[in-house]
Amino acid sequence: MIKSEAASPPKEGWLPRFRSSPPIRFLTSERAIALALVSPSIILVAIFVYGFIGWSAVVSVSNWHNINPDYSYVGLDNFKDLFQNFRFQIDIRNTVAFTLMFVLACLVIGFVLASLLDRHIAAEGVFRSIYLFPMAISFIVTGVVWRWLLAPRAGVNLLVSKVGWNPDYSWYTDSKVVYVHQGSALGDALHSIGIGFLTNPNYGLPLAMISVVIAATWQMSGFVMVLYLAGLRAIPDELKEAARVDGASEAQVLRHISFPLLRPVTLSAIIILGHQSLKIFDLVVSMTGTGPGFATDVPALFMFQSTFRANNFARGAAISVVMLATVSVLIIPYLYWSLRKESRL
Amino acid sequence: MRLKSWQVLAVGPLALILLALAACGGGDNATNTPTATGGSPTASGATSSASPLSGTLEIFSWWTTGGEAAGLQALYNLYPQVCPGNVTIQNSTIAGGGGDAARQVLASRMQGGDPPGTFQIHMGHELLDSYVASGDMQSLKSLFDSQGWNTAFPQGVLDIVSKDGIPYSVPVNIHRANVLWYNKKTFTDNGLTAPTTFDQFFQVADALKAKGITPLALGDKDTFESVQLLETTLLGSLGPDKYKGLWTGTTDWSGSDVTAALTTFQKMLTYTNDDHSSLTWDQANDLVIQGKAGMTIMGDWVDADNKAKGFTDSGWVPTPGTSGTYDALSDTFGLPKNAPNPDAVTCWLKLVGSKAGQEAFNPLKGSVCARTDCDKSLFDTYLQSAIDDWKTDTIVPSLAHGAAASPSWLSDISDAVTSFVSDRNVSTLQDRLSTACKTATVCS
């Protein structure tokens, strides 16, 4: 069926019409060859990406809760159950906390490293490689290494106890959640401006998550550094020189020249890091698992366990659909923005 | 020659189809075939088939290391004697995660219509609510009848492996979940005796705590450990009948007796080590071995762990309130519909259910026979006492190990317990457990 569709003579105007291209013959043999060469990948993507997304959507509104498939339609019941599920509520909180901390830390560290390297220091290439290397490691390995490093009785805590400091923090085994308490001064302030619902552990920061953020930032900040370095190098020296001639301080050069011109880089970095952190799975699995009281649980892990351990395929599919929707919120405006920019060029 | 446009266009999809066909043909499992083929048709006669067996018998399990793998190999060595012919055994094992990884592969193979000859699975609802419910397993009623297993196995086990009176899998071993392990030296040094009731347990725990020893070692990194602690507490507090009723809907999850049990569970958790969420059960047992902790509540695989670590000062009693009750889990094998080489599989099932098979397997695995007629002298001290209990105790199904509840119900309970272990809120836990029972459509 797929074959016959692709091979049937194309209808008039089925290829995208570009304003500049002359409307003469669409299917020259040159174009046909090009199309033949890309068609396997188009078909594979159509089946294995879009087909399976559609399949997940179908399963997510079905009644398939054990090994035995049951495709009877139940509407949005699975989604209702999911959003009432306490573990999923915790997962949403964790994802938000993780994404904010991770993206911010990567941007700050990446930018600082990039601006330090941008001073044309000696052996710049060596430093660049050192900072970028963690990205070549798989998240699984990163997770295992940092699990050892931050083990409460063995790792960093043991190191600092040698110099006489015994911090009361057990890293990823800490089940505490920091949040604004009801009745505290800040809590009252929140109540007075009508957002008192925030005084709840569901809107808190699980301390164990910090360990995962450290590991993820260690891995990804080098990548952000490279992005920023390329961005900084692309800023014409003339602009900075002109500003300096006009009497601008280095801080003002940074504020009024570098930052505005780096905005597209920052946006790309946020998109790349953001969609990664919304889908994060391997690092958490190998480092902490669900954590104490689900302190480091994430939707991808919940999805995996629902589907393959509990055989609750409908719930697993519902979680996947929610994850896809969240990532789309981030990706689609970006794609739109970058496509529009391309067509303007 | 110049190709026409449509000819060129057809090339891509055609290539794709060819590729797909090639990929389908090349599916090959990473398996090894270590074992005996051929065999002596003269040897022992637990059974004898009419015609010699041949072909390949694929046995799917997560037994990859230590005593488990040795026990499995012992069964493979026995196979040609019991099942004359020329069967090649294909040992498909998937390591990791206490069987999680293997169960995932199994699920996709069963759903894809490519079942192994037979597979390891926990007895009870792990099988009954999955492949039995989906109609993928064959009834073993005639096999149980012909082999005399209806009397060889205790009624309690027959109940757990059966759905509507029809057995679907053959239990090869039995493990006990409700065992309290303690360090004898720690106990004698402090003048303590092993507790058998909750009151005694808390007295002992307070005494240990006063000495700076962690009373109860817990390592719940893999979650099942704290679920198992809850399960033994429910069992000890409610008694076997009400405990069994939890899984059939006759005991009310929101009742006051369950509240009392959960409150006891809450109190027990206050006597555990702080770093429990970063430890596994065997690391928790290390604390007991080193004398840093006094007791741990875990299944009887602790016995094998102690042996492997050369620890001989270990004492054991049933967990508080569960004397006379055997909280059982078991590894079983069944016969999938459309299994390749079903005759060879049936003979394998005869072997794993036979006295010879269970006596070869269990001393190595560190478990007791599901049958009640095994030779006690083959087993170590702990297992000998377990065998005595197995013959006389009331048998109940284990929750944490798949016997009592369906996988999705167990998963909901595990989530509730994981959350409870950090927030310690009894009423929230009880609400969630009641909801879980309703979601599982066992309670109304």
Nutshell version of this structure?
The complex is a heterodimer of chains A (345) and B (444). By secondary structure, chain A is mainly alpha-helical.
Describe this entry's structure for a reader.
The complex is a heterodimer of chains A (345) and B (444). With 345 residues, chain A is mainly alpha-helical. Chain A has 14 helices and 2 strands, in the order H-H-H-H-H-H-H-E-H-E-H-H-H-H-H-H. Chain B has 444 residues and is an alpha/beta fold. Chain B has 2 domains: 53-174 and 332-391, D-Maltodextrin-Binding Protein, domain 2; 176-328 and 398-439, D-Maltodextrin-Binding Protein, domain 2. Helices cover 49% and strands 15% of the residues of chain B. In chain B, helix 2 packs across helix 15, helix 10 crosses helix 11 and helix 12 crosses helix 19. The termini of chain B are far apart. The model of chain B is unreliable at 21-49 (pLDDT under 50). Classes of the chains: A mainly alpha (345), B alpha/beta (444). The interface between A and B is large, with 48 and 48 residues.
SSE layout and pairing:
The complex is a heterodimer of chains A (about 350) and B (about 450).
Chain A: H1 2-7, H2 29-60, H3 77-84, H4 86-117, H5 124-132, H6 139-149, H7 156-162, E1 177-178, H8 185-192, E2 205-206, H9 208-234, H10 237-245, H11 250-278, H12 282-287, H13 299-308, H14 313-344
Antiparallel strand pairs in A: 1-2
Helix pairs in contact in A: 2-14, 4-9, 4-11, 5-9, 6-9, 9-11, 10-11, 11-14, 13-14
Chain B: H1 5-25, E1 53-61, H2 66-82, E2 85-93, H3 100-111, E3 118-122, H4 125-132, H5 141-147, H6 149-152, H7 155-161, E4 162-163, E5 166-167, E6 169-171, E7 175-176, E8 179-183, H8 184-189, H9 198-210, E9 214-217, H10 224-238, H11 240-248, H12 256-269, H13 281-289, E10 293-298, H14 301-308, E11 314-318, E12 325-329, E13 331-334, H15 342-353, H16 355-365, H17 381-392, E14 394-397, H18 407-423, H19 426-439
Parallel strand pairs in B: 1-2, 1-3, 9-10, 12-14
Antiparallel strand pairs in B: 3-13, 4-5, 6-13, 7-12, 8-10, 8-11
